[in-house]
Design a protein that fits this description.
The protein is α/β, with parallel strands linked by helices and 592 residues long. Among the domains are: 163 residues, 3-Layer(aba) Sandwich (Rossmann fold), CATH 3.40.50; 196 residues, Dimethylsulfoxide Reductase, domain 2 (3-Layer(aba) Sandwich), CATH 3.40.228. The protein has 22 helices and 18 strands. Strands 5-4-16-15-14-6-7 form a 7-stranded mixed beta sheet, sandwiched between helices. Strands 11-10-9-12 form a 4-stranded parallel beta sheet. It is globular.
C-alpha cells in the first residue's frame, strides 16, 4: 500500500525530503516498529495489545498493597478549619528574623517574613523561605544514634549523663541567639565556645581595637545618603543582609519630600549582588582593599584635621598606579565622603591577612566623618558572636586531653573548619563526642552519640538577635519523628551538671520571658504580655531600638597606626588571587 503524501509540512526540509526528515527525528513521543508508519496498527495486532493489557490489569489487581491508615482528628482544634490556612508568628533561630508561618490542617506549608519585626520588616532570604522544606526532608535523622546504631532516648541520655559526670565538658556551637539556651549553657558551668562557619572576626576584633568592645555594630543604611563598600556584599552575603536590604531599598525610594536616592559606590574584587546595584563600581585586586581604604583615609584625615604622618605614603596617584583605579575617581570618592559627613557610611569585608587592619581603617573613616553614632550604631547586634581565637584555645585543650566530653551543636566543624585548625586530630583525642543535628553529616559520623534534633517548626524557643529585640519561637506542628530540640536536650542533661531547671522547654522559655516582663514593664500581667508577644512575634520594646542611642564612641588612634604597619607585612602582589565567597542562595552550603 503506497504511503499517502501529507498535505501539511513542518518545514521545507520535510516537504522536499520526508524520509530524511523522519530519520532525523531523534526523540519520538511513542516508540514505533519499522513499517508501522506505512501500515498502521492492524486489527490482529490491536487485539493482541488489548488482550495483554487486560491480563496485566488482572494480575495487578491480585497484588496486595501495604495497608497505610490515615487518622482524622478525634477532637479537631477550634482554630483549624479545613481548607483555611492559619498563620503563626515565630522567629528564625539562625538569623533572629521574624517569621510568619502559614499552616494548613496543622501542617506548616509556607514561611514569610514578619512585617512587625524591626529587623527584617517582612523580608526574608532564600534560605529562610526554603526552611520549611527542612521539616519534611526524608533524610532527616528520625531518632537518636548510639555508636552508629539507632537507639532510644533512654539509652542515649543514660550514656550522655555518664559522660558528663566524668567532667571536662565543653560545648562547641554556632552563635547562640536564644537567651534561654544561653542561660542553660551558663548554668552548666562548662566551657562554651561559639564559632561561625563564615567568621566575622575581622569586624568584631577591629571593633575591640578601635572602640574597646568586641561587638558587631548595627549599620544604618536607612540613614545613609552615601554608601561606600569595599568588598562588603551587604545586599547578598555580608552581615544582616535582609535587614540591610530593607533599609537600603527604603532609602532608594522617592517618597514624601525625598528627591534623591543617595549613592552607592563599590570597590570589589569579584562580582556581587551589591556591585550590580552600585551607582559606581570599581574592580580591584583583593590585595588592594587595604590600600584603597588607606588612600581615602589619608584625604579624610587631612580635611578633618586628623592628619597623621603614618598615612603620607598612601597618596592618590601612588595608589592609582598600584590598583588601576584612576586617581580622579579616588579623589572624587574622597570628596563625596567629606560632603556627606554624618550622612555617609563606609563598610568593608576582607578575609585575607589584612582583614582586621582593613576594618580598623573603616572604623577610622566612619569616626572622622562623623558617621559614628549616626549611620553606625554602637548598640550591639548579637547575630555574630563567634571567635576563632577561642576555637584555637579549645583545640589546644582537646589535644592536651583537658576536654573529655565535647558537645557540638549548630556547626559542622568537619565540613566548615579549615584543615589548618587541626580540629580532626584534636577530636580524635576526646573520649566522648556528642553531636546534636538534623542529619548524619561529616561531624555526626565522628560522634559516639548523635541526638536527632527537632526542626524549629516543632519546638519552643526564643531569640535575641540585637539589644532589646526579642522574639518567641513557637512550634506549629508536633515533632514528626522521635526528635528533641537542643533546648530539650540541655534540660535532660542539666541534672548531671547539678543545675535546677524547668520540666519542659515551654516552661523554661516562659521563665526567661517572666524576667523580660519584669524588665520591660508594660502595665499588663504576664499572661497578657506572653500572649501579645506570641501574636505579634516580637517584644514591643524592640520597636524603640530602631532609633538607636545616637551616641558616638571615641576612636583609638593606635588602631589606624597598626593598620599602616600591617601593610608592610603583606606579601607581594600577585597576578592571580583566590577569592572564596558565599552563595547568595546557599550561604556556606550547610543547608544545600
Amino acid at each position: 500500500m503506497e504511503k499517502k503524501s501529507s498535505r501539511f509540512w513542518m518545514s521545507l526540509e520535510q516537504a522536499e525530503s520526508p524520509e530524511t526528515f523522519d530519520a532525523g527525528g531523534e526523540f519520538r513521543s511513542t516508540p514505533v516498529r519499522e513499517g508501522y508508519e506505512a501500515e498502521g496498527l492492524g486489527r490482529r495486532d490491536f487485539m493482541k495489545v488489548m488482550g495483554a493489557s487486560a491480563l496485566m490489569a488482572s494480575l495487578a489487581g491480585c497484588t496486595r498493597r501495604p495497608v497505610q491508615k490515615i487518622v482524622p482528628y478525634v477532637a479537631k482544634p477550634e482554630e483549624v478549619t479545613s481548607g483555611v490556612p492559619n498563620f503563626y508568628a515565630s522567629a528564625c533561630p539562625r538569623t533572629g528574623y521574624g517569621l510568619l508561618v502559614t499552616a494548613r490542617e496543622g501542617r506548616p506549608i509556607k514561611v514569610d517574613g514578619n512585617g512587625d519585626h524591626p529587623l527584617n520588616r517582612g523580608g526574608l532570604d532564600a534560605r529562610g523561605l526554603a526552611s520549611v522544606h527542612d521539616l519534611y526532608d526524608p533524610d532527616r535523622l528520625r531518632g537518636p544514634v548510639v555508636k552508629g546504631a539507632s537507639s532510644t532516648w533512654e539509652a542515649f541520655l543514660a550514656s550522655a549523663r555518664e559522660s558528663v559526670k566524668e567532667g571536662g565538658v565543653a560545648f562547641l556551637t554556632g552563635t547562640v541567639l536564644s537567651p534561654t539556651v544561653q542561660g542553660l549553657l551558663d548554668k552548666t558551668g562548662a566551657r562554651h565556645v561559639m564559632v561561625d562557619s563564615v567568621p566575622m572576626d575581622d569586624v568584631l576584633d577591629a571593633q575591640a581595637d578601635s572602640y574597646g568592645s568586641r561587638v558587631f555594630p548595627r549599620y544604618r543604611f536607612d540613614k545613609a545618603d552615601y554608601v561606600l563598600s569595599i568588598d562588603a556584599d551587604f545586599l547578598g552575603t555580608w552581615g544582616s543582609t535582609v535587614e540591610y536590604t530593607k533599609q537600603f531599598a527604603g532609602k532608594r525610594r522617592l517618597e514624601g519630600n525625598r528627591s534623591t536616592m543617595g549613592k552607592l559606590v563599590v570597590f570589589e574584587s569579584a562580582p556581587t549582588l551589591t556591585g550590580y546595584n552600585a551607582d559606581e563600581r570599581h574592580a580591584i585586586h583583593p590585595s588592594d582593599q587595604l590600600h584603597v581604604a588607606l588612600a581615602l583615609a589619608r584625604e579624610v584625615a587631612r580635611a578633618t584635621g586628623r592628619g597623621t604622618a603614618d598615612l603620607d605614603p598612601f597618596g592618590m596617584q601612588d595608589i592609582a598606579n598600584r590598583t588601576g583605579v584612576p586617581a580622579a575617581a579616588l579623589e572624587r570618592v574622597a570628596d563625596e565622603l567629606l560632603k556627606f559627613r554624618g550622612r555617609g557610611l563606609v563598610v568593608a569585608s576582607g578575609k585575607g591577612a589584612h582583614a582586621r587592619a582593613l576594618q580598623n581603617v573603616v572604623n577610622f573613616l566612619n569616626s572622622a566623618l562623623g558617621n559614628e553614632g549616626e549611620t553606625v550604631d554602637g548598640t550591639p547586634s548579637y547575630q555574630f558572636k563567634g571567635s576563632y581565637a577561642d576555637l584555637e584555645k579549645l583545640v589546644n585543650a582537646m589535644k592536651q586531653g583537658a576536654v573529655k566530653t565535647l558537645v557540638i551543636h549548630g556547626v559542622n566543624p568537619m565540613y566548615s573548619f579549615p584543615k589548618t585548625v587541626g580540629f580532626e586530630e584534636a577530636l580524635s583525642k576526646v573520649a566522648h563526642v556528642i553531636y546534636v543535628g538534623t542529619h548524619l553529616d561529616e561531624t555526626a559520623r565522628k560522634a559516639e552519640l548523635v541526638a536527632a534534633e527537632s526542626s524549629p517548626f516543632e519546638a519552643w524557643g526564643d531569640v535575641n538577635p540585637a539589644k532589646d529585640v526579642y522574639s518567641i519561637v513557637q512550634p506549629t506542628i508536633r515533632p514528626i519523628w522521635n526528635t528533641k530540640s537542643f533546648l530539650e536536650l540541655l534540660l535532660d542533661l542539666a541534672p548531671a551538671f547539678g543545675a535546677s531547671v524547668a520540666e519542659s522547654a515551654h516552661e523554661q522559655v516562659r521563665n526567661t520571658w517572666r524576667t523580660l516582663h519584669g524588665r520591660y514593664s508594660t502595665g499588663f500581667g504576664f499572661e497578657a504580655f506572653w500572649d501579645d508577644c506570641l501574636q505579634t512575634g516580637v517584644l514591643e520594646a524592640a520597636a524603640k531600638r530602631i532609633a538607636g542611642d545616637g551616641s558616638a564612641r571615641a576612636y583609638r588612634g593606635d588602631a589606624i597606626r597598626s593598620s599602616v604597619a600591617a601593610v608592610r607585612g603583606l606579601p607581594p602582589k600577585s597576578d592571580f588571587a583566590l577569592v572564596l565567597s558565599e552563595s547568595v542562595a546557599l550561604g556556606d552550603g550547610s543547608q544545600a
